[in-house]
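ARCHIVE CARD
Drawer: 12
Card no.: 0347
Subject: one protein chain, sequence and derived structure
Cross-reference: see card 0346
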Amino acid sequence: MTIEEKVAKFCEIVQVAVDAYAKEWYPNLPYRTELIYTKGRKYFKVLRKDTQTSVYCFIDQEGFIWYPAGYNAPTKNFHRGNVDTIIAKGIHPNNVNSFQTVQK
């Protein structure tokens, strides 16, 4: 599986968790949050689009997940997880912003 396929699969898994979270906590929202990604030189940028567009995370070529420092760059301190782990274990709907996996 290529890194781009892994990023696409990651976005699908997180999209399901984001939808479940919104349905449980904000059932009357008139819009849906959508996750899309773009490919850059070093990182894939995962965007969260609803009434605004913001960066959800960055994913490097090795599959490590980084929080955004801003719209164009990730944080430099340490990664927050790995795409392979999220694909293997899933993500808990209440922890979509902290990348905590489901305990299996």
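Annotation on reverse: The beta strands are 34-39, 43-49, 53-60, 64-66, 81-82. The chain has one domain: 3-95.
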